[in-house]
Design a protein that fits this description.
The protein has 367 residues and is an alpha/beta fold. It has two domains: 195 residues, FAD/NAD(P)-binding domain; 148 residues, D-Amino Acid Oxidase, subunit A, domain 2 (D-Amino Acid Oxidase, Chain A, domain 2), CATH 3.30.9.10. It has ten helices and 19 strands. The two termini are 16 Å apart.
Amino acid sequence: MVTLAKQIVVIGGGIIGLSSAWKLAEAGHSVTVLEKGKCGDGATTASLGALVPYNASREDSLPSKQRHSLWMYPQFVNDLHKLTGIDVGFKQTGRIQLIQNEHQRNKMQQDADIANEKWPFEGAETQKLLNDSELKKLEPEVEGTNFGALHCKATATFEPKRMIAALRSACMKMGVDIREHSPAVQLITQQNHVSQVHTATGLVSADFVALAAGAWSKNILPADHPLQQTGYVAPLKGQALEVATPHQLINHMVRGLGVYLIQVDDKKLLIGGTKEKDAGFDTSTTQKAEDDLLAKAEKLVPAIAECKVVRQWAGLRPYSEQKAPFIGWDSAFANLYHATGHAGIGLCLTPYTCQKVLEDIEHASHH
């Protein structure tokens, strides 16, 4: 336990905000979560729950952090289950990545060699290139390309709604004050500190504020904040589909042609997802997106042509022009912490991000 418990306000009740709140409360702090709608209703539950490591040949800072975070997932999920009893549907399903040309095949062979040498998995190869006959044995319904496929065992999935339920439960058990339908309207500042957060339901005092509001983060900063003049965080729209399958069509996540497929259970298969940069905060769905996703999915798994679309939805990823999330202290306000802008890797980076939020706020609270 910490010696000096702090009042911490977390703005945003998605996977990043709730996991940070859980860890902060577990360390003994008094935590309030402000969520504009219902917890998880933003990018988290709009996602498909995919945990895909960056290519092994990418060894710069962000890919390294992303993979480190993914390796933390089994423990993260286990801790959550021990505390709440909720199974989040975490499965190390593996991934089949269809290869489209010889150049891509050579690149993936290099990636596989590095992954097998450096990634922390014992036993059989973590990544392996398959020829078309090997692919057919693993995935009879998947259409080969003449260039084979990459089989990556270090790919996992979970069910986002169950993850949010588990994190919400963990927070409640740790005494977090979760305020849904209570958007943060304004940061009340004194000199270089945020002293309170003005919400739709009143003022909340804070020693520290963690901003984890995803695509809406920019709206919460003061109009004259330096980050308002930069690329900070903007919405990146993504649409996805759920189709009903007569039986299980695929055994792994399948990726190719810019889409990916996840079989949740025998009857449900998910197809994601579009990337629409200039859509703003529009979450309407379009026929064009449905047609495009289905056409690509059917090329990967022809049997999908016989399946019925039962749901189409759209979500907003928090995209940043710096091509990396904002995780760290604010430049203008000493007690404001950013945990946002994760774009398409927010799920992957969750264990790393919430640990970093905890460590940095703990360090600041003791100095």
